[in-house]
Specification:
Layout lengths: L2 E4 L1 H9 L4 H6 L5 E4 L5 H6 L18 H5 L1 H6 L8
Parallel strand pairs: 1-2
Length: about 80
């Protein structure tokens, strides 16, 4: 099983060696992706027409942050799979 965390540190490290983790993730090479909830690219990724059909499960582990961050937190994870 292959997994990849996508956050500021992993994106920066990949960039140094010429890798684009977002592009890799779209190909389905990773079976598990772990996102930083504050990444703006997250929303673009889950709505991407290439990446979206490859998404089998969607789990939010940081749901307790809804209370801490308020309504803005929900917009990051707002119904990404409606219509599937």
């Amino acid at each position: 099983m292959s997994a990849q965390a996508i956050n500021a540190e992993t994106l920066a490290a990949a960039s140094v060696v010429g890798r684009d983790i977002w592009a890799e993730a779209k190909t389905g090479v990773y079976q598990v992706l772990i996102f930083s909830p504050a990444r703006d690219e997250y929303n673009t990724f889950i709505h991407d027409e290439v990446a979206r059909p490859r998404i089998g499960y969607f789990v939010v582990d940081e749901i307790h942050l809804v209370y801490e961050w308020g309504p803005e937190f929900r917009t990051l994870y707002e119904t990404p799979f409606t219509g599937m």
